[in-house]
């Protein structure tokens, strides 16, 4: 890999060939080297059950090869053609409301549809057969943004097969789902139906009468869609074993357990569409999560908009410099590509107003074209300096889809608890300190970390409790929160006072958890030596009895005034922290400030608020990214000798101050 | 009945027998004497169409008998087993949206399903046969929290039969429903379909094009479910005529006309799950309503949580003392039991986090266990002191399901009118004065009351207008509000100026009723002799012309400034009050203060705000309950000689002050 | 036409004949001369597939004739009878959610149902045959408030036929809908399904994946319903060619393209139910639109409530004088009738509380009866003074259903853009100046206007761009806004920088349009000579580059601070204005103040705020309506000699001041 890939989705089939020439002229100017082709080409290529017509795709591929472009080649199976829905109605989905869908939209295929399974595999086969020997294909892009769910009778049948494989007997299933509750004992596998608005749910996806079946259906649905991916991958690998295979993930996307998916991808790629203009911490977290899926390996930024989205209620344009800044943020966190959706704006349908590098006018003197070309030229200059480079974080945050699902489908104690929001809150508090962070799964090895954080780790599985005890025994610091440690892998309660399997490590006992409306505030008072201040808290309140643990903070109000809200337990060589309430951000910032200080984890470069600093390491070389997310210029004080990659400037020693303009980026190589 | 029953729902079938022993050890300590068994046991017992297996239930029953516990025995028909939904799909419901449900949740059976009717009756029969001779069964608990509605074709067919029986001819039905409106004349019974989102409703349950059919369907649905109850009751009574039969009601539950149900129950029982921590007046009202269903007979508190619910968006724990306080409140209002849901917390599914006496840890040194045991010991001490005791209220509030339904499904004048909220508003104003209140039906005898209040009594039926006129003629005081008196039992308008059939009694004429957004305030000015002040009003404004009546208050603003808003009519020996607008609480408080003063209805015990006082009478003895709902200690000044039941303290005369701690309770016997 | 028709909907079939006599007595007193009969009479008349029974309708008609009343005769086809839904299920609709409806509500027939098409045509035929020779029928009233939509298989099939007729080939359709996007290429007409929640839509009617198919379905649906109208009209015209035919429109009603419908109506009529008490500008706009549908011809006000609606969440009564004021407003804007819904209030079902002239009491000394009679007497006095009179506006606002649809179903740039709200905002700014305004279609001739305004004219069709250029070249002033000019008739983007086909005329270039949450405000600064002030703006912000145009205002904040927000382009003899952001009302008021001044368009009568002035012209005579919408008396200064029609007072010269009481009306004839 001789440089960071630059380019993105390109759909020339929507345009006459004269436009292609305009496009390629600009690509050259902007150093665009990589094109993702054919993402929604199914109806174009497969015109009927037996007819595949590659005429147009051949022209597109030939032109890309002729122009010397890398191709990320899609299999095109993310939206089935109309004829398929018409002739093979099983390809469409039944939704959560139990409604059978007709043809439309995209990402519309039932993962267990016999027709879809047959045709999608065949399509991948045909694509590999036709284009497998194009030496400019650098990756297969299977499907697109896999997701959603289906509740049709094919899924229902496949669910029963999945359950039989998992549980073996109905007795075990009945035990796992606790079916003596509410007269739910199953005596025949055929009695099991998909859990949705017509069966176990009270109208909403998160409100189920039976967590066990709903949780298993979420797992089954993720697995079903993964099987679609694997089926295509197998035929591609058979035809072209050397071409790496991916599919574009969607970051913190709840329906798919990406940790389970990751092993099947040759590399991770994802699409970054943050919800607003203040998303830098959220994006950082998500990049780290995507990198963590494959234990730190670089990933691809497969999509981002060069300017604006279209599908939101409102769609702000990216401010000057922001597209470049966010592109480098992806790179700083481990991306080896900067790819856009899309190269030329569609002229009709629902992405007509979605931003693109080239807009409806085709003019190249637009702000977007100019900024894109500048970035392309920079990336060309950077070359392969840090492609393949990895991170060396000493902090890990545990991210777990099962806990996410379990905590959000739970009846009680509070529906105001959001897994994603909580992860962002904890990440943000650390983000402030410019420390490198890995996002890991519960199964990963903790030994390389000094600090492991697991907010809302509701579910205990694979001996996590024992493994984390060992980590702390050996000197590690572990931190967790309310609602952690208290259910097993079937979402049944650990039969113990809370925090369940973590109570020994935490050295506390919790009999009661109060929950109130988020507007009803309590507060905590820091009482341990060296701590001070009061902070508001809300939503959830564990009534902690400190046993072996020390109370760091206590509640300031209500009948549990004076009871511990935050505790720290010395556990052999290490420490275990428990946060019993949803406390305001300022507390988390103070908390991590102290912990990082104790653990001597800190960034040697001192920077003003708004600056983000991340490092990548390659062949013993360290590359430091200084990103200014603020609206104004910000300063950082360097700690050694560095060379700036973009302008070749040399920084000659510790204490030297560097000023980074608003939204600007500095990339330093440590000398 | 030798004491107040204490205990609650118990589901040992979800646990191994060693846990049962732990449970019974605690029951003994806590003086728990009554267990409700088998509520959701259908799937456990009936394993197929023809197989009933009582093995586990036998063990449970034997143990309860051996341990000397009273059993409230459920028939278990509140949730059908999965095999039944699979093999007899007619047992599941079609919802308001017209969607046929599959298996899931609970309370899930169509009341007119042939299979459900057959199997539920058979189940009751089997239970009676198996356990009917257990002398420790103190009641049959049929089904559980009956409710909901169904719109399937079986219901549709049964609805037509119900209509034929009610109307006899289509001409009468067409007249009742006013079907010349909007081309709705029915010429064949088969043309009538269930009114829901696919027929007469605009998406929402309260928004119908035809009030007549919707109202009749609500009545039909209530009757259909009542028929399920009666069918089970009949087989139980045949087998065990001596065991009283009940089912647990849900307080102010709109779908079922409990006044119509009550005659079929041997005693009333209900489940008390108030929406928030400030619900004392609401709970008081509801207890009074439950007591009123059987004309003042004691009822059972069948369920309450000892600590927290799970199904709400957030679920606060009951504060220290609150469980005990609310238990005694139930008793003060006529309950002869204090029962919980449930004895031991479920380990999985949607009630995993619902509070229970024994939680997942099984520890008995929790706050909940300690408070429960203390209460159990107190109740044991109290014994049968006032079991069976009744109230002697001189105030009645008329509660009417038909008016509730009619006023809330009405198109116009305002969808911001809530029957339940209005009842609570009026009750709250009286609650302040610590006067005993009965909740009665329109059919009840008024002669024992001095004051009858009927807010929102929209529908006139069974000569209510004439009977209430007689009540007033003889010296009674009657008070009603906007929207009262103006439709007949088919929800057709009384062809008269408003308040329709009550206009003569009220001595007023209303041609126009203005309604505004609740945020748009007007105000009233009190103008009658002895009255003063202004109060804000909103939402609805009757433009009253006082004829025989006197204007007590007039509007302060808008084009009807100066027109009466509140009137009083001297009608022979009595008085009739009309409240024409939704006025703020302060006015209602002043209003009832004056009326109670005039009628010389007052509690001889003078208490500070926050104290509730209620009395029960048994064999000429009076028991006075002083309940402190406030967050601080409050005082009351006694009017005579009393003995305190819980601490045997004697109070020796009028004027003595008693201080009641926050959330504490004093029970006095008048000597 | 010898006077303004006065009366309205009358449903005596719901009442016994003795009530009819009461009604007619009042009609006489109130000078009510016109009754709309039989609107929902289908079930009454057609009792089965083959049985028509006119007994009751004959009596009704005879009585009306005997009493000398004009009849607006309905065909009664707006709600099919229950037997029809039962025996011919294809008459009911399938809704947007894909749910097949059963019998209920009204306006419930599928427009492409074979049964409905057959029976509705037959019903019109029968009505014409039975009553066609009643000389007192002054109009046929087909159906009632046509509207809604259906997605059944009959509609789906008819949609394919409609598409074949429109596009001829699938290639053209695929091109129009841009189906290479998202794998949507259709190879067989049968593959096309109706776009709804089960196919192309994401749950909401405005959120579609394919604008092309959704837009065509909206057009198809409007056409389908229009075909129902035409089918009835044809049989009526055959039987009674001399009787004019109408149907009652609903003002700014999105589902039906009334400009396309208008040519098929002999005259326009509409139902005026404004959403609140501050709707004078909105109603004025809507009256102007209804008049504009037939190029200025007078219309009928077919319905308004005399007092209150019933279907709203709350339903305020019309304040004293308001019913009269709004009646005259309709007349001032071109109505030749003042008709109510309805004459006597229904006693049951969903319009039981809808206001009527005669209420449930039947008393005639109510405020409503008194105000109605007073108005009737005034209209009798006015006679035919200005019936048939037209307006002479020099300002036109372009209203376009296609743009309305396209802009609101668009994905991006902002779902906060409302076509209707924007039209009202621009109209309101002009309304302040008491200038006559025409609402016109894009196809109308602009030559009689000095100023043409086209807010949100998203879609360019029928050479609008060229025709409006010619208008400006010849000296006209044209004003448009953001989102105008940028899609073709298939909603595909004009391949150009914005404003697309209007860019030459506007002399500007727009590469980017920012959209933000409506709460995020920016502001504009007026910088051109003679302009001053700053105004807040929000929601949408075009980043304008002024080319030939002059910047009148620039943005005050954000990265586009200083870029033009409002521009003016001198284009040969005329001027072209472009408004690039949603700016607050104060700006539009200043803007139009200047433009009207420049164009010397102004009302010679100078009036205080709250006064509306409109004129009608007949046979060279001018009638001036002065309407005081304010809560207090307001003054106007006359410019010449006038005679007041209602009180015969003479105003003798320029400068004379006239005071109009709150809610009062003065009608002047210019002498």
UniProtKB/TrEMBL annotation, chains A, B, C:
GO terms for biological process: galactose metabolic process. Residues 9-382 form the Glycoside hydrolase family 42 N-terminal domain. Zn(2+) binds at residues 110, 150, 152, 155. Substrate binds at residues 106, 144. GO terms for cellular component: beta-galactosidase complex. The keyword Hydrolase applies. Keywords: Glycosidase, Hydrolase, Metal-binding, Zinc. The active site is at 145 (proton donor), 303 (nucleophile). Residues 393-601 form the Beta-galactosidase trimerisation domain. Belongs to the glycosyl hydrolase 42 family. This is Beta-galactosidase.
